[in-house]
Amino acid sequence: xxxxxxxxxxxxxxxxxxxxxxxxxxxxxxxxxxxxxxxxxxxxxxxxxxxxxxxxxxxxxxxxxxxxxxxxxxxxxxxxxxxxxxx
Length: 87
Fold this sequence. Notes:
Structural class: mainly alpha
Oligomer: single chain
Number of strands: 0
Strand content: under 5%
Helix content: over 70%
Distance between the termini: 37 Å
Number of helices: 3
Mean pLDDT: 87
Largest sheet: none
Order of helices and strands: HHH
Shape: elongated
């Protein structure tokens, strides 16, 4: 159950970053861009679930870190794609 919680936290962090980025852009909704962010949020969630599978316990601090890391994965991936010339 703890692994599911940490995965959901990382996913929510990524989705929150994507949603706030869309709000800040003042552009019309683009489901393609949001889908790309959702894919990175899923990868982040899987990565954190695998990483925390070796941990004995998960606390509130770990959940907070997973949310921030999920948001960071989304932000870094979007910057990297932008720098590489992608859309």
